[in-house]
Amino acid sequence: MIALIIIFVVFFALLAWRRLDLATALVIAALPAYQIRFNLGFLPMTLLEAMILVLFAAWFIKAWRADELPLLFYLSFPRRRESHQNIKQYPFHLEIILLLIVALVSTGAAGFTNASLGILKAYFIEPVMFFIVFVNVFKIKENRNKIFWALAISALVVSLVAIYQWLSGNLLPAAWQGSGRVTGAFAYPNALGLYLGPIIITLSGWLLGLTAQNIKYQISNDKQILNSKLPILKALFVCSVILLSVTAIYFSHSQGALIGLIIALVIFGVLYNWRSRLIVTAVMVAALITLSLSPTGLGRLQSKIMLRDLDGQIRRQQWAETKKMLLDGRIITGAGLANYQMAVAPHHQEGIFVRDYNDSDFQRKVVFNADYRRRVWQPLETYLYPHNIFLNFWSELGLVGMLLFLWIIVKYFLISLKSIKSVKSIKSERERALILGLACAMIVIVVHGLVDAPYFKNDLAVLFWVLAGMMGVYQIDIHPQINKSFTNNTNKR
């Protein structure tokens, strides 16, 4: 295995040196490769990490030789600023710097353990390294479609594995065999929804932008029909990827991802144009009528929203334990990176009695009926994270880290809203749909993140900063006056 990994990394290094754009796209397509693990001497490593480090090294050397290292040259050589007036900060540059500082402090709060250093490396330093390369590649418009194709290919492979698991029962992790749920290329079902959800909405915005721009060009300028026409096979391919990805999430029974997708699609339809608003309104009216005619379905939906089902009650217990942990002298510092399980252990409850909210006699039965008590008892494990996006960051990075991450999300949405309002022309219709898709991808992350951990995993951390990089670059495109963020001359080399 290690020999194959070395051969792959060597070929990837050659690709990164010759075609940085293709190497960047390959990293995105291979995000699930973090599950291929090996040791580099005493240092644990994943294949995804190796690819990011090689990619960054190739970019760094090429940029150094071309005199295009933005932050390094701008901060280190004041005398040379006149020749580097186009070299300023990256999108989200202050937030990234502060996040790295807070993550380093949180590593110290955890005692600089091997686990905390590993989290610092894999979830913060390396995703930021990839973000730097990604922004320099993605800002070149000719490279952008490669990124979307990479996301589509990755989603396709993961979805096909999940559908094969559902059809055959093969390739499932031992813990999930016979569960009726699929995991795709991952170790557990929710990981599939966490990964595919944002990609589905991003690809939907990309596809809609391409087709909408094509239609408007045909209406406004007959001479450009052949030049602007989107090949039907490409459109069908992307549509197929989207449908297969939704199917894979459905088979995984990842309810958080499905709810996040529904909410994001509703918001997308409301904001896109008047036709989409009519469609969303009609669908919502039909859904409400259907629910009103099905008391059982309405009851299940209410139970899910109010967190009264099994998963909801488990989550509420996790959050209660996390609250006790934070109030136990950790409100400011949190538990420290990779230290949540140890910090929450004194407050952990071995299990809960799963409440039946339709049974008014539940409490008496639990107290006096031993058989009933055994039937409603649910053992609880100590999870790696509290399964809430804000509590995750609070427990790992402390109060400052949680507030900083909240601000990054708020700023992301503010940028998207400002950019959407600024896009007026027909030629910018593509960018408008893309930005709206990116905004709704973050909505999927936040909504699903209310009951899960959508950042603290190698692939999800990189995917988060890929979305941030896209949004930042599109903001610069639409508002040229702020196009002073990084070098203007990085190319495909």
UniProtKB/TrEMBL annotation:
GO terms for cellular component: membrane. The chain crosses the membrane at residues 41-61, 90-112, 118-138, 147-167, 187-210, 231-251, 257-274, 279-298, 393-414, 434-456, 462-478. It holds the Pfam family Wzy_C. This is O-antigen ligase-related domain-containing protein. InterPro entries: O-antigen_ligase-rel_domated (IPR007016), WaaL-like (IPR051533). Keywords: Membrane, Transmembrane, Transmembrane helix. It is a multi-pass membrane protein. It comes from Candidatus Falkowbacteria bacterium CG10_big_fil_rev_8_21_14_0_10_44_15. It is found in: Membrane. It comes from the Bacteria. PANTHER family: LIPOPOLYSACCHARIDE BIOSYNTHESIS PROTEIN PA4999-RELATED, TEICHURONIC ACID BIOSYNTHESIS PROTEIN TUAE. Its main location: membrane. Residues 242-406 form the O-antigen ligase-related domain.
